[in-house]
């Protein structure tokens, strides 16, 4: 995606985070995390400094969600995979994961990994059904008194 399109991704991120995460995180932590990791400024930095790539998940000409990935050390990091509320449970996330796995294989990567909030049961089940396994439990201080309490999950792309 062209870096100029990141403003639209950031707008979608703000909507998704505020509709999905109130059952897991406080409103103040959601606001902080959106600003720190999902804002246009943050995404531009991720693209320019960390090699992130962003794309919308689409159905025809309709944007149903978005994803953000990066690669290092032979691994695909799925940093972001989010769907708008009305598009969840319809197979878009699973299809997006399959496309990311194919991309990783095409790029010669051996593993896909991600982090997921320990209380995000739906996502954890989805990732498990796609072959991910939990390899680590982490708590990351992200500043302002907030932490990310996550599992690291990975899937082998090739043996």
Give a quick set of tags describing it.
single chain; 159 residues; alpha+beta; six-stranded mixed β-sheet; 35% strand; globular
Oligomer: single chain
SS-derived structural category: alpha+beta
**Helix and strand run:** HHHEEEHEHEE
Main sheet specs: 6 strands, mixed
The helix tally amounts to 5
Structure description:
- With 159 residues, the protein is an alpha+beta fold.
- The protein is built from 5 helices and 6 strands, in the order αααβββαβαββ.
- Strands 1-2-3-4-6-5 form a 6-stranded mixed beta sheet, with helices on both faces.
- A hairpin with a 2-residue loop joins strand 2 (62-72) and strand 3.
- Helix 1 runs antiparallel to helix 2 and helix 2 (27-38) packs across helix 3.
- The longest helix is centred in the N-terminal third of the chain and has 15 residues, at 6-20.
- It is globular and about 40 Å long.
- The N and C termini lie far apart (30 Å).
- The model has no long low-confidence stretch (mean pLDDT 94).
């Amino acid at each position: 995606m062209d870096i100029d399109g990141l403003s639209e991704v950031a707008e979608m991120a703000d909507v998704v985070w505020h509709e999905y995460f109130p059952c897991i995180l406080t409103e103040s932590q959601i606001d902080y995390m959106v600003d720190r990791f999902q804002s246009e400024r943050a995404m531009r930095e991720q693209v320019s400094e960390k090699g992130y790539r962003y794309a919308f998940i689409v159905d025809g000409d309709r944007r149903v969600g978005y994803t953000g990935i990066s690669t290092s050390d032979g691994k695909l990091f799925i940093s972001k995979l989010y769907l708008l509320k009305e598009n969840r449970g319809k197979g878009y996330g699973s299809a997006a994961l399959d496309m990311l796995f194919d991309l990783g294989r095409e790029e010669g990567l051996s593993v896909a990994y991600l982090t997921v909030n320990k209380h995000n049961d739906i996502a954890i089940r989805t990732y498990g059904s796609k072959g991910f396994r939990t390899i680590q439990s982490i708590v990351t201080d992200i500043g302002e008194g907030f932490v990310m309490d996550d599992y690291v999950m990975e899937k082998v792309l090739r043996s």
